[in-house]
Design brief:
This protein is of the alpha+beta class. The chain is about 35% helix and about 15% strand. The chain contains six helices and five strands; from the N terminus they run H-H-H-E-H-H-E-E-E-H-E.
Amino acid sequence: WKKLRYLAHQYFLIENEGITENAAISRCSHFNLGTGDAGTATKYDVEEDVVKWVSRLLDRIHEPELVILFGLNSILKDEAISSWWNHSQGLTVPWSTPHEQRRLTSYNGRSYRFREWRVKSSRGNEIKLVMWPNHPSRPPFRNIDFWKRAVSEYIHGHNKSVEPTR
């Protein structure tokens, strides 16, 4: 949670210079796509009714400005799970074709990318979804110092290597 609190605080500091960490957290929600305690997520750990509920909630109730997704890239690309998400009352997202990809330049090992989608809610409000390159508990993000560098790189736009995917 320390890493998620940091990410939320840094994000909201852009708009509101004096916002406290607790105030930033109060503007956030956290959703899982299943009810089990999996430890490592696979497509077998998500549940259809939960995926549909989260998609509908984001589209019709919350309409957030930004959604950050951790460790879900291959799961949401799965044809069945993608169809659960993109149901008639949910937030439609073309999971296999992000609008933009940004390479994580502060890591010299494996090539990691932030994937971004910009979609409209059913009421016409824009929602940006960002697939974080890996889960906060997994390498290289397990290290808190690297986590902070990656957050800064993403939020402050230090990364100039934008790769459109359209």
